[in-house]
Inverse folding.
């Protein structure tokens, strides 16, 4: 059948297989003779989880063990972060790192080495993973930072290209409350928000919503949101909202006018320069999870996400160059998020690096692709790179220059026979499937 | 903490419901054929908070084994608060049309074994003076259709049996809940193309838990099936028999 991921672009004809035990996964990995890629909940945005055959983790969603003394959890890779939170928040545990949606599988979180609002302090998801079991074309292999390390480094952030992750062991963090103390700072421009990040680098969570349509003196005006786990308020797991977009809209309501209006209202919703409040973790971490299928808002052609990171050294001038290009293009990015990131890890294809990351999404159209190509040139010049999980269109050159460890990654792929049939549309585009 | 027994525990809807029971800290007896799956599910439910798990491998068609199991569990835990019957298969209608053996086997699995279980469980709960019998039938039992009338007939029998049982046990304070799911995305329906009417097992599980807590008699899950089936049931037979359903 035809499948797509969260951006609804591109679309690919694919055979979907839903194995329900490790043995059939390993059998498949060892014996299939045509292209395949593992797939979790299809929440990557572009073509990372698209191939002629996709092997999903949907029926591999059993928790295996949890030790309430240490917080160490071992689970099948198909379990979703949402279901883990539902089980473990009431027991006083939280994910050490969470992306902006809870509707991802554990295996997907590892394959993307996802990051969250605490990257500057806690690193990315895989920095908290103790070990993995992977069904590779040479059989089932256990790996960790100390055992079969190259496979671990290649699999964390490796977009499923080393094999099918069947099992993940990670350590959860203890919490006293399901609530977050949120402080919002208003920043009049890019310079201000960047210094606010610096000033608040000890905050546990930080992220800025940024108005990409503002220009001139207001270029980069933003709201910086900081968060700390509250000490009281109860441990209820809460619920994501129940709104849903049941079908794609024939004409997308998102255009430069509505985006400008939204940004204006959103920015001015905060009256004072600093606002304090206590919020449940659901709206704090997952504001969009309350609207199921919000991706349909972008209409039939779907949308592309663009997330880049530029090194600290490129700083203000670098980010300003990007923002200037975006606001000059008049292409509206409905959601734009800026975050200061901490140091990178040793995983071969993990995205984060010390610096600033900017995430944007655009309705799909040819003009947008041209803009993104121009942004690519700026990012490359600054020594930055793009997030594979959100990518649907970057060039092989852009990828290889941004990810200098791609050759080590390829060596691991070869040594486990993963270069024979494990291919996604993305891996072919990026020169990882020759 | 409630004492719960689940038959057909490794079916997708039963698993999702068991997870909600586990999170509530209940103790659960799991009954299904596949021991490997039972072990995995048992561990999962323990990690999610189940107070105690008993796993028993059994083919529900072995009706002479039911009594001993029910006896064992009710003795060990003192009583059974909730029995959820979820085992079943989706017959190949075309194959049944040319095989009496297959048709009877499907009726056995989807109706007769359930009736056998219910008869014993009803007596157990009657002697306790409390309890909930929750049974997954199907919207397919509401009207026979050419595309799956063997399944429909089996589920219809279960529904009718539950109706009588409810009438008998209502005065004793025992809940008899008939759960009628519509299309659910499970391994049983793997080969179907899924459209807008399809629900996830987790959605059905939430409805089941609410139905039990709300002391309901019959629930359609998701809710809109009540209206779909109302329309389907109200089409006059002279017209209905000509439809390709």
């Amino acid at each position: 059948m035809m499948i797509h991921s969260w951006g609804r672009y591109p679309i690919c004809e694919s055979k979907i297989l839903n194995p329900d035990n490790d043995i059939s996964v390993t059998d498949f990995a060892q014996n299939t003779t045509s292209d395949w890629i593992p797939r979790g909940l299809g929440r990557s945005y572009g073509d990372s989880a698209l191939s002629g055959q996709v092997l999903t983790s949907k029926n591999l969603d059993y928790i295996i063990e949890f030790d309430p003394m240490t917080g160490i959890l071992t689970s099948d890779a198909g379990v979703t972060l949402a279901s883990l939170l539902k089980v473990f928040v009431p027991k006083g545990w939280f994910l050490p790192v969470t992306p902006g949606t809870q509707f991802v599988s554990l295996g997907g979180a590892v394959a993307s080495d996802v990051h969250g609002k605490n990257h500057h302090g806690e690193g990315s998801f895989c920095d908290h993973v103790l070990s993995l079991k992977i069904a590779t074309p040479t059989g089932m292999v256990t790996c960790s930072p100390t055992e079969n390390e190259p496979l671990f480094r290649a699999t964390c952030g490796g977009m499923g290209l080393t094999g099918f992750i069947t099992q993940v062991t990670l350590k959860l963090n203890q919490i006293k409350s399901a609530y977050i103390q949120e402080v919002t700072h208003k920043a009049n421009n890019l310079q201000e928000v960047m210094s606010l990040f610096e000033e608040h680098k000890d905050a546990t969570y930080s992220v800025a919503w940024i108005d990409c349509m503002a220009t001139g003196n207001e270029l980069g005006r933003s709201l910086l949101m900081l968060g700390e786990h509250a000490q009281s308020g109860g441990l209820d797991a809460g619920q994501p909202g129940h709104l849903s977009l049941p079908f794609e809209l024939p004409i997308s309501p998102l255009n430069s006018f509505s985006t400008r209006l939204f940004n204006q209202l959103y920015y001015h919703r905060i009256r004072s320069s600093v606002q304090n409040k206590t919020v449940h973790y659901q709206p704090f971490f997952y504001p969009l999870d309350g609207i199921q299928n919000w991706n349909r808002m972008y209409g039939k052609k779907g949308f592309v996400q663009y997330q880049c990171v530029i090194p600290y050294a490129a700083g203000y001038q670098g980010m300003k160059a990007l923002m200037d290009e975006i606001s000059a293009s008049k292409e509206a990015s409905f959601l734009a998020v800026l975050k200061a990131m901490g140091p990178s890890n040793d995983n071969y294809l993990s995205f984060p690096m010390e610096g600033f990351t900017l995430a944007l999404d655009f309705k799909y159209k040819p003009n947008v692709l041209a803009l993104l190509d121009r942004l690519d040139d700026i990012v490359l010049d600054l020594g930055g790179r793009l997030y594979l999980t959100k990518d649907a269109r970057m060039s092989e050159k852009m990828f290889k220059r941004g990810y200098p460890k791609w050759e080590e990654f390829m060596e691991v792929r070869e040594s486990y026979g993963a270069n024979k049939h494990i291919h996604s549309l993305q891996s072919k585009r990026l020169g990882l499937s020759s | 903490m409630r004492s719960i027994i689940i038959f057909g525990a490794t079916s997708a809807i039963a698993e999702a419901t068991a997870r909600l029971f586990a999170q509530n800290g209940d103790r659960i007896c799991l009954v299904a054929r596949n021991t490997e799956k039972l072990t995995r599910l048992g561990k999962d439910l323990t990690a999610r908070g189940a107070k105690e798990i008993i796993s028993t491998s059994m083919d529900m068609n072995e009706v002479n084994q039911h009594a001993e199991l029910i006896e064992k569990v009710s003795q060990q835990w003192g009583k059974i608060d909730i029995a959820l019957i979820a085992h079943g298969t989706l017959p190949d209608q075309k194959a049944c049309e040319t095989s009496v053996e297959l048709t009877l086997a499907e009726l056995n699995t989807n109706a007769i074994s359930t009736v056998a279980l219910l008869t014993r469980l009803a007596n157990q709960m009657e002697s306790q003076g409390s309890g909930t019998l929750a049974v997954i039938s199907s919207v397919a039992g509401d009207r026979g259709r050419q595309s799956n009338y063997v399944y429909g007939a089996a589920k219809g029998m279960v529904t009718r049996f539950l109706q009588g049982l409810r009438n008998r046990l209502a005065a004793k304070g025992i809940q008899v809940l008939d759960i009628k799911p519509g299309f659910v995305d499970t391994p049983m329906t793997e080969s179907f193309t899924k459209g807008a009417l399809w629900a996830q097992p987790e959605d059905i599980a939430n409805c089941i838990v609410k139905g039990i807590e709300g002391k309901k008699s019959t629930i359609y899950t998701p809710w809109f099936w009540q209206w779909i089936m109302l329309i389907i049931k109200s089409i006059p037979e002279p017209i209905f028999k000509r439809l390709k359903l």
Summary: Chain A has two domains: 36-175+402-424, 179-394. The mean pLDDT of chain A is 92.
